[in-house]
User: Fold these one by one.
Assistant:
Number 1:
Amino acid sequence: MRVVILDAPEDLIAERHRLGHDRFDEVWEGEYHMVPFPTNEHQRVIMRLSLVLNPLAEEAGLEVRTQFGLYDPDVSDDSSYRGPDVVLFRAEHVTERGVEGRAELVIEVRSPGDESFAKLGFYERVGVEEFLIVDQDTKDLHHWARQDVRLVESDTPVVPLNAIPARLWTDGDTLIVETAAGSQRI
């Protein structure tokens, strides 16, 4: 079920915060998006990807966070941000509230009916260099890389990442991540 709330009642937001139900919520240019807790498979994919990518990110001078806010740097309040599942970024692009616009790689693990694809325009506008969607069930990949001011979708079944030395592809319902250290099945 898709729910978008404009002018959300303060008591509703306060209650969600009190109960810890707002952990994954996002605000899209003033629209409050209530996001349900991730499924077991969703979390498993996030965790495995983070473990495989973290050493490569560190070698490239990047930091990795999971379910961390990515904010529109042109908006000083909390009225425009997304919460990607995995984000790789340089230290100079982070503040106390989260990543300020530019990230080197953003990964969304897509659950049925979620809004992963709808985030493309935001990520493009705020300066994300590379965007990857992994379907939680089929492990199908969708990849976009920055070309000038646009994020352009790749059309190759094997996705070489620009941010770190890794290639990804799908084998049946398994995600393969290949690095110099070998291949990991996720």
Note: Residues 123 and 149 are 11 Å apart (CA to CA).
Number 2:
Amino acid sequence: MTVELKVPALPESVSDATIVTWHKKAGDAIRRDETLVDLETDKVVLEVPAPSDGVLKEILKQTGETVLGHEVLALIDTVAKAAAAPEKAAPAAAENTQTASADSKPALSPSARRAASEHAVDAHQLSGSGRDGRVTKQDVEAAAIAKETKAAAQSAPDVLDSSEGERPEKRVPMTRLRARIAERLLDAQRSAAILTTFNEVNMKPVMDLRKKYKDIFEKNHGARLGFMSFFAKAAVEALKRFPAVNASLDSNDIVYHGFFDIGVAVSTERGLVVPILRDVDQLSMAAIESGIVSFANKARNNQLSMEEMSGGTFTITNGGIFGSLLSTPILNPPQSAILGLHKIEDRAVVENGEIVIRPMMYLALSYDHRIIDGRESVQFLATIKDMIEDPARLLLEV
């Protein structure tokens, strides 16, 4: 019996996908739920598993090709597997099985397969450091570094030899994710009246609170108490007060959202992704922190689902973790605003007529001036500042 391997259903916002890697070739035996091929969309990498045991009879779509939802990728012969199944193992057969097992390719974790594809490393030639000899992502990255170091050493004389007059260049096609990011950023700048307003916030009250309770917080909740949960909660309160900041444009209509789904920008090797924390107004600070950590880990391992990347009514991005002191973040359409956090830095400020040193952070709110007036944007940012400088307000909602 022949079974079709198809592209999974793609959401409306994703029109197609690109075949990144085939993990099997025609004629290979396959097992049910074993990943056969990776597909890259403009949001996530999808792993397509085998629907049944059998033999990969024919690959219809090759690496690099663009495919649509439900399109047939390959054909699987389920009968060939049964015909090739070994009889009950005799001692000699068991010995042959052990020999064949020793010569077989090492098992790869999904993240190792992706890393091998990205770095052009033959992971099957590596000795795995994981459990039962499994090749891990770290094994692949170590091999990639060694490979690049060796290549650099071999090419160094040519690169450094000025007499040859060569200046090396490397041309690499954009990934679908990078191309999509570029497209969305250009669309945002062309289609929205983007303006940015700034403020600064004294982080000492939050830092003192965090220092006092971080250990017991982590012990009770199993999550590290960071700054993002404070800003997420402050953003929700500000969004309640200024509904236009939580709205979006749909043609000539303004859609006011009665829920608070906040996107948290995460930087990965493939580019910036924005997974969504749903109903943040109903989440505890521990749930927010755990959710952010989970998203960050999934993003860096290309494990985010379409659902986790879709929607969102407001976005928070933190350039401060990279040392950014000030920036003007770009909107994440169709959202009407984005909050930018920055590096915390000790600065001289005036309090009660005296100059004191405080850990200060610049805040930036970029917004669509077609929906949000300057007064609303300034007051929105001032509300965030008030909440962070007096964290008790977050509990009392005042």
Note: DSSP finds eleven helices and 19 strands in the chain.
